[in-house]
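Practice problem: predict the structure.
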Amino acid sequence: MRPRLQFTSTNKFKKMRSEAFKKMVAQAPENRLFRFSLGQALFDENSPAEAAEHLEFCCDQKEDWMMPRILLGKAYLQLGKKEEAREILQAALQLAIEQNHEGPEAEVRALLEDTESRT
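Answer:
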């Protein structure tokens, strides 16, 4: 008889992911890739306030890094910080245009339009 495969639930997997990155950040708090990965994992867990701390760090460390700005804008939107979201998303849009990233550009434009329509 074959053993049954047991699959980890999605939520448990996400939590395991953030816990792994928390350990990495604890060992190397200045590592912006670890901090971004932790911020992304926390955002995926629907923890926007905790994610924002790490994404803000990434934005402060690298001026031309678009992805943390997009995630930070989304986190701010979830937190109801519309003005902060608008500012960081506009910066992300400018980077997407400068770096010729059409997919992220379209995503950020849609987020900004949605933000404007809710105001």
